[in-house]
Amino acid sequence: MNLSLVDPRVEAKGFLLPFLAAIRFLFFRKQTPKQTFFYTPPGNVPLVQAPSRTERSNTRLFALSPEGAGFVPLASLSIPALKKDNRFFMENVIIIGSGCAGWTAAIYCARANLAPLVVTGIQPGGLLATTTLVENFPGFPEGILGPDLMLAMQKQAERFGAKIQYLSEVTEVHLDPPPFSVRVNGQIWHTRALIIAVGAQPRRLGVPGEKEWEGKGVTYCATCDGALPMFRNQPLVVVGGGDSACEEALYLTRFASQVYLIHRRDRLRASKIMADRALGHPKIQPIWNTVVEAVLGEKNQVCAVELKNTQTGQTSKLDCAGVFVAIGHVPNTRLFEGKLELDPDGYIRVFQGTRTSVPGVFAAGDCVDRIYRQAITAAGMGCMAAMDAERYLSGSGS
Ligand SMILES: Cc1cc2nc3c(=O)[nH]c(=O)nc-3n(C[C@H](O)[C@H](O)[C@H](O)COP(=O)(O)OP(=O)(O)OC[C@H]3O[C@@H](n4cnc5c(N)ncnc54)[C@H](O)[C@@H]3O)c2cc1C
Fold it and tell me: Structural domain of residue 301, as residue ranges?
């Protein structure tokens, strides 16, 4: 008698599982989008795929000029020139910037199977990665450290297939009809769609102590930091004379014992309604014709500012627990001057969501938004840009 030691059900399972796995692999695996990917690396790295004849005759594809000084049409280069010092990469979507807007766009694009390439810039994680406790990002009842939040966003994007050019900057863009070209670390990348999420930098005072006490009393966002325990029932200083400065000062009256509004002129630059509101508030005291010369701190927090009267030259010291700098922001958009429609202050103009003046190019976050400038609004716009890009790509048949 032939006795089998294996339970027939187990035996059947042993056959079934690889069979099911094969079916799953053949029919249900996630399709990675086809990438036209060709390059001729320099030196002795093997040629992966040379541009085809059609690609080489395409005057819309650009290559690094043999001198490395700019873009030249791929069509104008001979094969030896291509082999010598040009590489070509074609992507579905390139995302410039890795702040809240960039990583959120990356999560959405990656989940849409677009395998986006994120160029992080020299500040991976963006502005929020430079701060400490973030108390107003939804989902974290106890708050979360800025760097932790940004790392979590990066991991989430990577998990779905986002590719990263870490600590790399885009130094040149070519936004003629798509495909677009960007230069990253001397390489040229082509992309069918582009999402710009380069953020904006707050203007700094540039005085001694400002950098040293940043995050320990010096801040650039009242909405973000005003409610922190360190500022409650304390005298606070706001520097600036525009609408933002008035808004920040008014916001801080909810927490501060007194708000000093320091302005270098003898009247505010703000709109009349904002100026009237700020100057009429019992907790706000303007200090005219005055500049901050230094920020002082002791133990672990700001304790005072040194002031100078611009008319008399007289110096003084003012005790305070925080310095809120509200002298404006500079969007990081110089790269796009003359290539995209920008407003007079350099913010990228968007239409119908996140579409810029060039079809196929989308913009999100603080480089677009001069009003809200919050992590959550930047993230929201990143999501919108990804969805707009995805629709654009499916509409354009890419
Ligand atoms: C000190 C501080 C504290 C803050 N705290 C809070 C808070 O508690 N809560 C809150 O909601 N908001 C806070 N904010 C505001 C918040 O940080 C911003 O609104 C948010 O970071 C904007 O995100 P973003 O993606 O648009 O731009 P950013 O975060 O500014 O990111 C821009 C990204 O673009 C990259 N980049 C720029 N140029 C290039 C280039 N040429 N090539 C490649 N990459 C490039 C940079 O490296 C960076 O990764 C704070 C801001 C500051 C300054």
Answer: 218-327
